[in-house]
Amino acid sequence: MQSRMIGKLGGSEEILLPVRPLYISITLFVALMINLLPLTGWLLAVRPDFVAQVLLYWGIHQPRKIGFLPAWLLGLAMDVADGSLFGQHALAYSVMMFAAIALHRRVSMFDMRHQILHVLPILLVMQMIVLGVRHASGDAFPGWWFFLSSIVGALLWPATDLLLKIPLRQRHDPDEA
Amino acid sequence: MGEAGYPPESAQGLPHSGAPLSTRMQSSPPPFFRRGPSLFARLGFFSLLSLMLLYADARFHYTEALRKAIAVVLYPLQQFADTPGKAFSSIGAYFVSQSFLQRENDRLTHENFLQAGQLQSQQALIAENQHLRQLMEMRERAEQTSTVAEILYVGRDPFSRKVIVDKGSSQDIEEGAAVIDDTGLIGQVTRTFPWTAEVALISDREQVVPVQIVRTGQRAALFGIGYDGALDLRFMPINTDVENGDMLVTSGIDGVYPPGLPVAVVSNIERNAAYPFAKITCTPAAGPNRNRQVLVMSRLTPLPDYPVVPDAKKGKGKKARKGG
């Protein structure tokens, strides 16, 4: 185990294209659109927060290209779209971004399975903040299914990684071109 | 990352294994000097900003203008996000069978015929009612206009029960207006945006509907409890005359909901002598998950102001009310 982790110190083994800020904005926009899909019933209950997912991903992998401002603004957008208390998602996303940037070196050292174990608490803390804010304003606990969204989100972390990396793969071998 | 996850990539990556570490995903080297405020300072700044907004929204509702501005920006995105669902349902509607349409047409013709009969007698009743009210010099019941709206999506906030409809302040939808469907009251408009409006369902925890039991005429307050399919009729004494199956309609004394709209049916009564009130559970008559079309009623003409003694101090006013 120890040797494998040291082997992983280099982080990603593949060589990817540099991430442009435009690409980050596009992925965040797509995540926002998926969050805006008119879902109902159990699908809405188990749906992970895609905006949080993508923000967390870029926070961990590109901490110098994303900061608090996009997280905060997208949080406000989610508050308006959901009709929830103004600022609750903004606060939760800000704290999540802090955790992502503070832990980015540590998390990117691990392989996927162990990254999930890092992502899950971060997402749960984000939801706990939302819960705390709503509790303070007098709302009741909606039920344990509320945390399903985080669990599904953490389980989808490898898929998120796979998807967001597709456009960053090198088309051809640069040595042969 | 995981070797198991990307076998072709790691195989491809082998010739490059001698490449410097900086050609990883993070393509630029880290800066020599830290610039800008620290991470904790940035977290503090944005958290404080959020908390200020939260406080302003929860306590004073100061943020409505900002919310509306963001809603205008989000509106086209929301419309775009709704298109796949709409396209899917319209494709489904295109492929309905002819026999289904025939049956539906028969049913609608039949219903229309029945309702035409009811309407004729109702028109006579309306005229008679108006005439009688004029004779008795009572306030006339206001004619209400209504707007057909469609439910765009169910609110995603797990703490409240809301739906968003596709008509807003630009179509003269006002905050506080009652929203009904073909079977009864659904909720009340709580927030309007230029082209959409937010409707709090009667099952929302913060919604209270003043109702009247049809059989006895007794007034009561119906509380939402936060989930579909159940409402609470609170503060009814144990010996109240309530039976299972009693119909509850809006009483109209609040000046918000028009009187006589079906709201719920009493479904369960628990009378426990240990408590001062009976626990009465009701089933809502209407539900937003039955159909997408709803009717937004216009606001009622406001009721006359509560009568207050002109220049009376607090104590005097209390006395006067007691006396009356």
Short description:
The complex is a heterodimer of chains A (177) and B (324). With 177 residues, chain A is mostly helical. In chain A, 67% of the residues lie in helices and 0% in strands.
Oligomer: heterodimer
Largest sheet strand order of chain B: 1-2-5-4-3-12
- Major interchain interface with per-chain residue totals: A-B, 67 and 66 residues
Span between N and C termini of chain A?
38 Å
Corresponding CATH architecture of the domain at 151-297 in chain B: Beta Barrel
> Structural class of the helix and strand makeup of chain B?
alpha+beta
Q: Would you tell me the overall average pLDDT of chain B?
A: 81
Q: Number of folding domains of chain A?
A: 1
Radius of gyration of chain B from the CA trace?
A: 29 Å
SSE succession of chain A: HHHHHHHHH
Question: How many individual β-strands of chain A?
Answer: 0
For the record, what CATH class of the domain at 151-297 in chain B applies? Mainly Beta
Low-confidence stretches of chain B: 1-24, 315-324
What's the pLDDT, averaged over the residues of chain A?
Answer: 87
- Strand portion of chain A, in percent? under 5%
Strand content of chain B: 15-25%
**Low-confidence blocks of residues of chain A:** 1-11
H/E series of chain B: HHHHEEEEEEEEEEEEH
- Number of helical runs of chain B? 5
Overall, the morphology of chain B is globular
